[in-house]
Amino acid sequence: MYMKTSIAILFLFVTSTLFGQSNFTFSGTIKAQDGSKLSKATLIIRNESTGDSLKTLTNENGIFQFVLAKDAYKLVVSYVGFDNMVKKYDFSATPGLNFTEDIVMIPGSNMLGNVTLESQKVQIKEDTVSYVVDSTMYRKNDNVEQILKNLPGVQVDKDGTVTAQGKQVTKVKVNG
Question: Which pTM was predicted?
Fold first, then answer.
């Protein structure tokens, strides 16, 4: 009797998984307009009815893969330098167990151009003078005295007295 019950339970389990199988594979390739594959593109797919979402990155060949239940989804694909691609899919009536699509990304219209940052090397605020010390003014392992000697308008005596613009400096703060 134990054997008949076990076989019946196993039969029910196998048939329910076979008939209840509604998962399928959604895969594809993310490409640029020139046909080059986009590695590490970000894909987020959201189930429209449950609100659940999955996230993945494309591999080095631009390939992605999701295992999904047959339902309606919204896919968002993003990649640096390209406009985000948003597309809706309804897989509820998709025949078979696989759906494949190649997605072509469009170069971004909001690309940031070249940026040049400049700062003043000397800033004077009331009784404080600030110097921006960059790599052209010192060598690795220089001590503070060596760096101060290279600053314009600053002198360091043999005994370590610091003079800036002809006045003795009572405090020197080093940041970094």
Answer: 0.53
